[in-house]
Amino acid sequence: MSLKTNQKAATVQDVARHANVSTATVSRTLSAPDSVSAKKRQAVLDAIEATGYRVNRAARSLRTQRSNNILVLLPNLGNPFFSLVLQGIVDVLTPAGQSLVVAETRQIYSAGDDLFSYYRAQRADGMIILDGGVPAESLNRFLASQPDANIVFACEWTNVDGFPSVRSSNEDGAILAIQHLYDAGHRNIIQITGPKDNVLTHARIAGHETACKKLGLEPHYIEGDFSLEAGLQAAKQIKAMSDIPTAIFCASDVIAFGLISGLARCGIHVPEDISVIGFDDLEFSEHFVPPLTTIRQDRVALGTTAAQVLLRGGASKADLVEMIPVRLIERSSTQRAKTKIPA
Fold it and tell me: Coil, strand, or helix at residue 99?
């Protein structure tokens, strides 16, 4: 509960007294929370809540010549995957007195803007990019124009040098998926991939091939694009095969949803006829019918870690690659293979 007063708004000094810390510690908690111990940081955050203190962003901007705006670029605002990533970013940046400006990369380019001009128009102090498909020439022009820009890639990444990135262990996730299916007796396994030029697609194919080589399997693929439609179309291809696989690894949960629906329309049931495993662990995955076995990405950790790297000065950590572990979540869409396992 906030402390109410009719005299004046709460000040930094009020927060410091309530938290039993110095005003410098309050300032560091708001501007660089990673530099403050977890205990003191929590005490300051509790004091801010109790006193009702509000950061005067306009005054701060005049003093520091900074806008305290962080630009977050998404490839698709409608993709449910990014909701928890954004939550993680907000959890770190809001207590640090930063405001988020969220935009879709395809809208920027369709409007004829380039990355640098859009960044300047938003008066951004930093940027978190969740889209590995940003054109290399655009990134190179940006670096040439503003070499000290504070930019971090998260979830996806770029092969252009000069940017730190925070990503899930995508290869490990694919290995976990194939190993899980193999341990359940499956030998005829197909992966429905993401789009061919996507960095996540490449990483998950690499993990698939590593697992297959270790287990003595031949890797097989159907090209997709992380969409429901990709899963629906793959179901038709699978139905037409003379040797129908016993298990499918989908490079995203959304593909898996489309696949399971498409297979049902073809009279093929999951998991009775084919086991299906996804990648992401979206909120809907455990409520789907059947509940989806999947590889869980810690999306909140992706967001919080990216925001922490940004606050620590992403521009000075250009070669940083921070890996967030993944894990297998077993549900009802996979079961033991009914076919006899080869000797």
Answer: strand
Counting DSSP H helices and E strands in the chain, the numbers are 13, 12
- Span 265-269, mean pLDDT? 96
**pLDDT tens track for 271-293:** 999 999 999 999 999 999 999 99
Q: Report the Cα 53 to chain-centroid distance in Å.
A: 32
**Nearest by Cα to 95 from 22, 36, 167, 18:** 36
Predicted confidence (pLDDT) per residue in 125-162, tens digit = 899 999 998 888 888 888 888 888 889 999 999 988 88
Distance CA 71, CA 296 (A): 26
Measured distance CA(212)–CA(336) in Å, rounded = 18
Instruction: Give CA separation, 67 vs 125, 212, 341, in Å.
Output: 6, 50, 62
What is the C-alpha separation between 178 and 214, in angstroms, rounded? 11
The pairs formed by 108-111 with CB atoms below 8 angstroms and a separation of 24 or more are: 108/73
Q: Which pLDDT value is given to residue 274? A: 97
Encoding tokens for residue 201? 């697609």
DSSP character for 283? G
Place of tokens 């927060």: 15
